[in-house]
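For reproducibility, we list the full input for the zinc ion complex.
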Amino acid sequence: MKPMSRFNEMRAILLERNRFYGDRLKGANCFEDIPFTTKEQLVDDQAKNPPFGTNLTFPVEAYVRIHQTSGTAGKPVLWLDTKESWDWWLRCWEEVFKGAGVRAGDRVYVAFSFGPFIGFWAAFEASQRMGMMTISGGGQSTEQRLRSIFQREATVLVCTPTYALRLADEARQRGLDMSQSAIRITVHAGEPGASIPETRRRIQEVFGAKTFDHVGMTEMGAYGFECETQSGMHINEDEFIAEMIDPQTLGPNAEGEKGELVLTNLGRVGMPLIRYRTGDLGMISREPCACGRLSARLIGGVLGRADDMITIRGINVFPSAIENIVRRHPQVVEFAIEVHRQREMHELHLKVEIEGPADSVIERLGQEFSNDLRIRASIQRVEDGSLPRFELKSRRLTFVE
Ligand SMILES: [Zn+2]
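The corresponding predicted structure, in tokenized form, follows.
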């Protein structure tokens, strides 16, 4: 069934049963008339109507899973799935695996703690449903995970890009060579890292594997994946309606223009999102892909988050552009970005953990910031192990008032 027919089918159910969307849909004559949904509205709705809010299409008894957003950008939002909508999540993840070339016979290692965040829960179950041996890395230390990857001869690693690099770093310290493991594919999500060229290059190099990005959100679903050509993030347009808007004017963007992605999911009728402002910034291309898929692609993946943009002396930079420079230098083990806002002019301060002599690395980083991004940064070496390490949703950017 065509996406818009599916939407209309869902719309009829929501008008009748969903308090959150009932009113929004009633006043709209066409799809483009429906007001955008924002994260703030969801937070607000759950605060006023605890604990789950009013975006429930069915009685609470119909829901079989509950997860929450990581809350990095505010209060966590709770998200509920029915059996049908969870099955739909798994279907979306099957597309992620298929895009990356994962197949029956692979052994999929999921380095994830299986807590309240949705994270890789759906990846784990989708992998199992596709017939792969699926290995949990829950409740384990990094060292135990490394051992498990080698001993069980895992061929696919699923984790955040940051955590992939952390595994590699710990392996190196223990004299293990990850490129000698059976890992042939790595699949990432949780942060834009795997689409950042230098981060991808490093992961591919240390694992001797092909690295794929994927993008999803707790409240939305797994909406984007890479195919074997690695030429942008395919949006799963069988299951999502994608629009690109100008985040300032809220008007539609032309193809190839950078904007904010607005999504509608079609398979999560129990707790849907319609015209949701994802905050993910990118650029859509509708050129057919060499893989044969016709869906829209985000060129270069998610380029940043609307709320993460930093302005340094009139120049707009995303943390991903900074990461792309830092990752050129394998001596940098971990880093953190601080933006100081005491004065009118914002200042960028970069803290780095460096292995070995630091002077030349710091000098080159400074040059590259100024040449490639046209910004000046103060760069400070900090003690090994002093910066936070992340397993999920890295937050390397802080604002200092
Ligand atoms: Zn493709």
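The CA atoms of residues 282 and 303 lie 5 Å apart. Residues 83-100 form the longest helix (18 residues). Both points were considered when choosing residues for closer inspection.
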